[in-house]
Design a protein that fits this description.
By secondary structure, the chain is of the alpha+beta class. The protein has 2 domains: about 80 residues; about 180 residues, PPM-type phosphatase domain (Phosphatase 2c, domain 1). It is built from 9 helices and 11 strands. The strands form 2 sheets. Strands 1-2-11-10-7-8 form a 6-stranded antiparallel β-sheet. It has a 5-stranded antiparallel β-sheet with strand order 3-4-5-6-9, with helices on one face. A hairpin with a 4-residue loop joins strand 5 and strand 6. Helix 1 packs across helix 3, helix 4 runs antiparallel to helix 5 and helix 7 packs antiparallel against helix 8. The N terminus and C terminus are likely disordered.
Length: about 350
């Protein structure tokens, strides 16, 4: 499991380390000026020249100290951001462009709410299994470095469970157990004195919305939804799929004994699904107007043939234009187009098959 610190902790560390060499020369200069002031005080006749020289020397030393401190902090902050970006690239690896007859494209925009840490709390993954192509799209509460631990727990569990569990219900329960383990370990790490025993409700305010999809070889799409926005079906327009009420987000309440598996739609060849996080649908402009995600998707779906990468590029461009480039929340997008070809059975092949039986 990847352990991460909050952005505030990382910033405090950056401000307090790695600046010794940069500060050595300004501090030495300040000491020299102080010694010179003590050893050679100004003349008793209040001469202006020596006083101006002393003041200028002190101002120069203070300016050098300030510049060196800010430069050192900026270098450390860049280093922290590089580490965070590398960790996120490992966690959110780009999906393959084609997987089991589906063309896939993904994109992410991170809210810059932590003073420069371009790290998001959204997650997605697409994997081909013996049960069909399984997809997860999720959104960890909040964004920044603190969300990476939950992202790692959910994605790591999903990548194993999709191959082991014959049903989506089993996959979802595995995700819940992984998230609970992560929250308990984080609670012990942040409050060791209060976690000698098993915490009853660790980090109750932490939760993850999750949408699980299973796209079977015949194009049938089944889903389990824990508080996440439903996807859109793209076929000459954009239709929001609303097969039923979602469950509460993972981490907020225990999963019920029965998990309703929703039959969403049948994805025909050439049609696509667009999964997204609520950062897209909830984005607002300066006047407080919501981003019209469905309208933008409908325009993008008019292109023939429909390109998943072009759809994501169009949504991101319009989203940044709508918000003026200032996002309040992370945005993740995932588009899957069915490129499987339905070949009708040939009469001779049908007769031969009947003869064999």
């Amino acid at each position: 499991m990847i352990r991460t610190r909050s952005w505030a902790a990382a910033r405090a560390s950056a401000l307090g380390t790695g600046r010794g060499p940069a500060l050595a020369l300004p501090v030495l200069w300040l000491l020299v000026v102080g010694c010179w002031q003590l050893a050679c005080p100004p003349a008793a006749d209040d001469a202006v020249g020596p006083r101006i020289a002393t003041g200028a020397a002190f101002l120069l030393a203070v300016g050098c100290l300030t510049y060196a401190g800010r430069a050192g902090a900026a270098r450390e902050l860049r280093r922290v951001q590089e580490v965070a970006d590398a960790a996120q690239r490992v966690l959110l690896r780009p999906p393959p462009p084609r997987i089991d007859g589906l063309t896939v494209a993904a994109g992410q925009l991170c809210a810059d709410g932590d003073g420069g840490a371009s790290v998001g709390g959204d997650l997605y993954e697409v994997m081909a299994t013996q049960y069909g192509v399984r997809v997860v799209m999720g959104d960890v509460r909040g964004h920044g470095l603190g969300s990476l631990g939950a992202v790692a727990a959910v994605l790591g569990s999903f990548r194993e469970a999709v191959h082991d569990e014959p049903g989506l219900a089993g996959v979802l329960r595995r995700l819940e157990r992984a998230l609970q383990r992560h929250l308990r370990e984080r609670a012990r790490a942040e409050h060791p004195s209060g976690c000698a025993a098993e915490p009853e409700n660790p980090l109750a305010e932490e939760f993850v919305t999750v949408l699980l999809l299973e796209i079977r070889p015949d194009g049938q799409v089944f889903a389990l939804n824990c508080g996440h926005p439903w996807p859109y079906r793209l076929c000459g327009g954009a239709e929001e799929l609303l097969p039923g009420d979602p469950l509460p987000p993972l981490g907020s309440f225990p999963l019920p004994a029965e998990l309703p598996l929703h039959s969403c739609t049948r994805l025909l060849p050439g049609e696509a699904l667009c999964l997204h996080t609520d950062g897209a649908s909830d984005a607002r402009d300066r006047a407080g107007r919501f981003f019209r995600l469905q309208e933008v998707l409908a325009r993008a779906a008019l292109d023939t043939p429909l390109s998943p990468a072009a759809v994501i590029h169009c949504v991101q461009r319009e989203l940044l234009r709508h918000t003026g480039g200032r996002l309040a929340d992370d945005v993740a997008l995932l588009v899957l187009r069915n490129d499987r070809v339905c070949v009708p059975a040939q009469p001779g092949a049908v007769g031969a098959a009947r003869a064999r039986h």
